[in-house]
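Standup notes, protein team

Yesterday: finished cleaning the Pedobacter steynii set.
Today: LPXTG-motif cell wall anchor domain-containing protein structure.
Blockers: none.

Input for LPXTG-motif cell wall anchor domain-containing protein:
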Amino acid sequence: MEINYTIAAAVLIAVAALIVFLIRKNEKDRKKMEKEIIDSEIKPEKHDSGHV
């Protein structure tokens, strides 16, 4: 049984590219989720300093 190194190299490059793509997408989604969580938290009310 012979291995076609051209096809094996193409498959390895495709798998590596897919892994890199998924890691970058995961990081972007994680940052987006963290921002949404922070934005959804209840913020303290601001008081006007002129009113007593």
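Follow-up from PR in the comments: The radius of gyration is 25 Å.
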